[in-house]
Amino acid sequence: MTLPIKLKRGLKANLPSAASAGEPLFTTDTHELFVGTGESVVPIAASDPTLANRVEELEMHRSTVVNTYSEEFNTLAFVDSEKTTAGIVGGRVAPTVTPDFTEDFSTTNYFDESNSMGVTVNTTNRLIKNTAGIKNGIFYTKPITVPSTDKVTINAVSNEPSAYAFSEATRFSYSGSVFSQPMGFTDRTNRTWKVALVNGTGIYAKVTNPDGSLSFEGTILPFKGNTHTLPFQTVDYVVDYNNRVWFSISNSSLGGVVGAVNSDGTTYKDWYTLYLGAGTVIATSMTLDNQNRVWVFHSVASYTRLHVFSSDGLIVKDLTNILTSGPSDYLRSAYDPVRNQVTLGMVNGNYFKVFLFDSSFQSVRNIQLANGGKDISIDMMYDPVLDKYIAIQTIYTGSTNSYSVKLYSLHPETLVQTASVVNVKANWVSRLVVDGSNYHFVYSSDTELNKYYLATFKASDLSMIDTSVTVSPFAGKHYPFKDSNGVLRTLSLTTRYEANQAIDEYSFGASKATVTLEVTNNNGLEWRNAFPGEEITFQTPSTSLLLRARLDSPTENLSPELYGYRVITGSLSGEVIQEFVSTKLPSVSPVAYASITADQTLQDGSVNWYLSNDGGSTWESTVLGRKHSFKNPLYADLRVKAVITSPSGSVKSPSISGYTLTSSNLLLTPAKTGTNLTATMSADQTLTAPDTFTKINFNTTTHDELQQFDKKLNRFIAKTPGDYLIVGSARIKSPTTSPNGLHLDVRINGQLHKVLNSIVSYSNHAWCLNGSSIVRLQPGDYVELFGYSFSANGVIEATPTYSYFQIKQLW
Length: 811
Known about the structure:
By secondary structure, the chain is mainly β. The protein is 2% helix and 54% strand. The chain contains one helix and 65 strands.
């Protein structure tokens, strides 16, 4: 596990005159180390230069990892409903009094089926939504009995998703040049980058600030010579923790190249050639890990390669031959910060294949997904909320031009998949774009020439929301992204301006699905709008209420959802103190620091904020906008709590419309103390059954400091995740039959992992088999050694120098 460094840092001019006894202080400008005495601070460099050098080394090699999450209460995905006592309605959190009636749709007791139209009650998921194919449904309740009152407040919990529609298209490229491979993304200061390759020139970049003003525009990473020309196969990018932007290009004449620019567009690393040979570089992909290392994959004519660069631009790993069985037409890589692993998706031999790599660049697992047939396309991303890899693939389904789309949700450790074939006929899909709990992609129809559509699906269950938004009728693939203000855009190749290839920029407007509540206390003679949290006064008191909800959507494929409602009778009186509590939020892991800002209206009340990095077991008070340091920086379950107080007699209560949470930690990679196991046999073991795998009885340990070996079951059981070296050896006594032989293999969780050694002998003498293997284990995984005898009564000799079982944790 990586450990945060707790060290006070700053300029020497700001060095305090006193610090707590034993507290270390480090000056970032002069690189000096001081320690507090309780009454002053004293330097330790003169008395212990070795310690000072060590601290400076740690300071230089640690890295900051940051994650930012924003909540606007559009959904309840991160609301702890069991602990939250405040109301969450209309995208805001506000206090409510105890309701006189609550409906959560666990039953249909108050569902007026005869008057409701176009809606369905789902008691399993406890919600109401429009029936399939219906855009405008209406829900009626049966009469609700309440205490006699002329004042009522309705609070509802609903999900109102947005559907997108094409808004406008403008020209992005300038005339007179040939453009290709456009991309859009945001950097770590929330600026929007729109870039494209210009034939023979370089990368054209237009970078805008969140307020729309231009940061800079022009050519970056200019090409040199006359080889930087079409065709460019693919291009990819990453933004590192220094806000530098790295680009990787595959090109038939260039081979594969990597370059990087600073945040102002100036060159940081000029184009570096990865491969230049007889084969064409077909595809490339990039990703960034939490050590600020840039991973670059690229596919050459017959194999796939990996290169890794450090943050200072030096290559730290040049690994060839990840795959040696033909070209990969598509490469897509993603990073999992929870397990510090990289996944690579590729199209190889018409199959969608996925490989997992650990932080030391070792391939630890792979899987082959569906055969997509000819000309398939893919993409893959890591979803930190679901802790899954979300992937997409086109499938060629017949001898004619018939395609469909397949979605995947892959477990990040086992790659076990949940798959869904969707009703989309597409011969190409774009990169995926995250939009809250939904994903977007653009696809081209295989039945309508040059027709492009925008599709949206839920990541949680891979269900399709909408596939009908027309993007454009012009030839040219679209590359979607979200800008710094959350606006969905695409950049598209087009030939509609001139013969040379140009680029259009498309933007999309969101149309929201809505839930509108109304209430009556006179059996429907007069309906009143029930705005969430607002008190309604009727002309006369009543003991019976009717509610209705209109569920309106801009498309038949998208429905708003009503999760429940509360009826509160009478006016708000007395001080009300209620809480909002979140579930586990996306964050870095572990969480050493966090800061929160909030969009809140206090009125006459107050809101007090708390943070927890241990799942709510311990809450620590925090101040908005101030960096909070957790008492225990090793926990990784980040949550937020807000205590909302509305004073007695207040007409308007405090409310929260959203918050933004930034989590961070300081990481280094320390040495690890892990497994060091040696097990031997207490007695000879006879393998009485020929042609049968038999577990070898290693039941005596000489090294097992972590108590991970089960002597009764003759197995090692891992307690911590990591890479382990497994060594096995077995000596066979002189057999009485000939020919004879033995397999020695290692099994993980009962399944064959590797055959360590094998022998067939035609002479009757003793012999010894041994071998080793490296394997990635998770807590609970168990390892055993088995022997496979070719003849009956083969005997394994219990001599510790010949027959032994060893495991060493490498990392």
